[in-house]
Automatic annotation (TrEMBL):
Region described as Disordered: 1-25
GO MF terms held by the record: SNAP receptor activity
Protein name: Sec20 C-terminal domain-containing protein
GO CC terms: endoplasmic reticulum membrane; SNARE complex
Classification via InterPro entries: Cys_alpha_HP_mot_SF, Sec20, Sec20_C
Keyword Transcription regulation in annotation: no
Location of the Sec20 C-terminal domain: 61-148
Organism: Acrobeloides nanus
Superkingdom, natural source: Eukaryota
Family, per entry: Belongs to the SEC20 family.
Any one of the GO BP annotations: retrograde vesicle-mediated transport, Golgi to endoplasmic reticulum
Subcellular location: Endoplasmic reticulum membrane
Keyword entries, A-Z: Coiled coil, Endoplasmic reticulum, ER-Golgi transport, Membrane, Transmembrane, Transmembrane helix, Transport
Length: 151
């Protein structure tokens, strides 16, 4: 029996070491209570170590610098929001201007077609008036020829 107890004692520490290794390998997000306790101990130890190395003045300056950084980030965020709203407004104005430009362009095209149409009609009208004048003067010549010259 003495041999079996020595063997049991030798096996038990190796099994305990294997269990400890498995426990150490677990991630902090694991749901087992032992891992959570180990994670919390590490967090507290890191916090105590940080407090030990940093004096109270350094903590105050660090807090102040973080507060100023947060305020600067808020200012930058506000500027970004203002810039975004300006950009949205400018885009809307640009879109409206583009629509008006297209409307004016369509009006100009229609006006150009009408002007060319009226130019053709003017040429036709001039030609017809010239023919009418020639006919009128031809008739006048015929009348004068018959009345004045009796040929």
């Amino acid at each position: 029996m003495g041999n079996s107890s020595n063997t049991a004692q030798k096996v038990a520490p190796s099994q305990v070491d294997n269990e400890n290794k498995e426990t150490k390998k677990l991630k902090p997000c694991c749901a087992c209570p032992e891992t959570k306790r180990q994670y919390m101990r590490k967090m507290l130890w890191n916090r105590k170590r940080l407090e030990h190395y940093m004096g109270s003045e350094e903590r105050v300056t660090t807090t102040e610098s973080l507060n100023s950084l947060v305020s600067k980030m808020n200012e930058q965020l506000q500027r970004s929001e203002d810039t975004t709203s300006t950009l949205i407004h400018s885009s809307a104005v640009l879109h409206e201007t583009h629509n008006q430009f297209n409307a004016v362009g369509a009006t100009i095209r229609v006006s150009g077609k009408m002007i060319s149409k009226y130019a053709r009609r003017e040429t036709t009208d001039k030609f017809l008036i010239s023919l009418a004048l020639l006919l009128y003067f031809g008739v006048i010549l015929c009348v004068l020829k018959k009345r004045i010259f009796l040929f």
